[in-house]
Specification:
Two copies of one chain form a homodimer. Chain A is of the alpha/beta class. The first copy, chain A, contains 13 helices and eleven strands. The first copy, chain A, folds into two domains: about 5-165, Rossmann fold (3-Layer(aba) Sandwich), CATH 3.40.50.1970; about 175-355, Dehydroquinate synthase-like, alpha domain (Up-down Bundle). At the A-B interface, helix 3, strand 7 and strand 8 of A face helix 3, strand 7 and strand 8 of B.
């Protein structure tokens, strides 16, 4: 069975990807179909679409996997593939993969012959709950993430939890952090539901994934250009991005969601310090996050490096560090400007909290 | 004095570029200004903007001149320049040059950080009357013109006939062909005015350039996605593109407008053959075009090559060659499907007409 989220701009389908794709293609007219995969999704995900008859004629373009290939050279490979197979303006590109495939494939489609249509089939939990909504496409350039790109919506997004079986448990946990974030900023009831799910059984989460996508979609729809409430989605990310950048330079880098999980704990501490969260709520959040993630230790000596990363954050204004803090569980207060000594206090508190376990 | 065409999407200013730019910048807020030039416009056109105070702090990015540099490598040079000077999302890129600078600079701006604002100052007659309207941006890729790009409107377009003094007479004549075309497809009175202008004095044509831009703008506005009437702009281009491609491979290539001028004569013959144009009208058109251009001779042996180029035209449908033909002077009939033997007859007639001089 395939269900659908109503979206004013494009539909998002949940369920069996092959069935959803057959339905989608049945009443549309495309001159050619192309599928973009990386070497992993070619092996592990493409077979799940075997029973789609229209794909027997599709051209499959396959690129190397990984963020380091999300660049203009790989775009040229993709554009060349489309050109060599004489894709015209009525062709469809189906992006089958995680965030790299979706962001880069969407960018290539949006710029090929000034724009052909594309469809997203995100295969990681992170891309299903995060990149599937918002229309942000692009590539990395000169070491800066997503610095070249466009805003463009796909024809549709198909979210099939069956793909999650192809992921390692660590990758699933990474995506789960964004689901926790969506519930914390917007939906207390959904937060309570998530505290009872089993991170080892993601393919049973269809409702939870749909609920998470619906939260992001409501927020993006209310503020597509990130002037206000869309900043809620930055909860956990000011500290989390600094941790992600710091650990990337060490011998034990964190996945995005692992860094965001730790960032959410520190920002929950900041929320409690401001009186926006009770101590009991803070402890509940820390306990749930600790159930799933082994939170990274942070030494006092690393604070200057972490603060330097935070100072570079593009959300900052007036040289103060800008966070979106929780105001109770399920509610957010955006544009909180935080003095650096307050952040140091929160990091100290974080160290105490995790060493208490 | 600066005048303005009303445009629902962005204003087009005619007159002194420095004055227009000062006016435009006076009530806008940009964090940084960048100017993109090629090596020619850096020397010959940038000095005309010397008296704009805000430009004293602008960063100037300069690239090699010519269509062969309209590619993804040059885009990377431009993006790097923006990145190195820390352009943020509130920066403005001013594109100062011909079609290559406008198309490529606009594309780079539209994709840098998912889109910064840009302003077009076209400096060739062709780009003033053609590329300044329509929102088509892009670069060449794998030898195919404009195959990578986006649709995006500039903040504004500033058209200053003073830049035309920097062009060779041959380049001015090339741009003039598009002005003739605009009048032929839409405005009989404007056609008669143009038959009296002096191609050696383009800087006095402000009204004529504005009239030409207004025609293109009305047509694009009525049909932005080229489903119908926008195809009128293809008059002269089915044959003209084939001639341009053919002569590109010879020792005496044609400029775009020179090829379009010859293409318009052949397509006027096709119009007359269909009874859409009187013989007197055809002769008038041929006489006016001949006043300005020395029309290229075409040998019977080249017909197969020309027809092959026409078969590749992306406007074709059902394997028939698609032309937009004149229906009287000042009127158009789009989507005329022409059998190849009819095109051969028209090419024979073209040879007779030009050898009769």
């Amino acid at each position: 069975m395939v269900t659908q989220i109503k979206n004013p701009e494009y539909p998002i389908f949940f369920g069996d990807a092959a069935e959803a794709l057959i339905n989608f293609l049945s009443d549309k007219s495309f001159t050619q179909l192309f599928v973009l995969t990386d070497k992993n999704t070619y092996v592990h995900c493409l077979p799940l679409l075997n029973k789609v008859p229209a794909l027997s004629d599709a051209r499959v373009l396959t690129i190397e996997a990984g963020e380091k290939h999300k660049n203009i050279d790989t775009c040229q490979t993709i554009w060349s593939g489309l050109m060599q197979h004489e894709a015209d303006r009525k062709a469809l590109l189906i992006n089958l993969g995680g965030g790299v495939i979706g962001d880069m494939g969407g960018f290539c489609a949006s710029t090929f012959k000034r724009g052909i249509r594309f469809l997203q089939i995100p295969t990681t939990l992170l891309s299903q709950v995060d990149a599937s909504v918002g229309g942000k496409l692009g590539i990395d350039f000169m070491g800066v993430k997503n610095s070249i790109g466009v805003f463009q919506n796909p024809e549709t997004v198909i979210i099939d939890p069956a793909f999650l079986k192809t992921l390692s448990p660590r990758e699933v946990r990474s995506g789960f952090a964004e689901m926790l974030k969506h519930s914390l900023i917007r939906d207390h009831n959904q937060w309570q539901i998530l505290t009872r799910v089993d991170p080892e059984q993601p393919e049973n989460w269809r409702e939870q994934i749909a609920a998470s996508v619906a939260i992001k979609q409501q927020i993006v729809e209310a503020d597509p250009l990130e002037k206000g409430i869309r900043k809620a989605l930055n909860f956990g990310h000011t500290i989390g991005h600094a941790l992600e950048s710091f650990f990337l330079e060490t011998s034990h880098p964190l996945l995005h969601g692992e860094a965001i999980a730790a960032g959410m704990v520190v920002e929950a501490i900041l929320s409690e310090q401001r009186g926006l969260l009770t101590t009991a709520q803070l402890v509940a959040i820390k306990t749930e996050i600790n159930r799933i993630y082994s939170l990274p230790a942070v030494n006092t000596e690393t604070y200057p490096v972490l603060l330097e990363y935070m100072r570079q954050d593009k959300k900052n204004e007036q040289r103060q560090i800008n966070c979106s803090l929780l105001h109770g569980i399920g509610n957010i207060r955006i544009d909180c400007l935080i003095p650096e000594d307050t952040i140091v206090e929160a990091l100290n508190r974080y160290q105490d909290l995790i060493s208490a376990d």
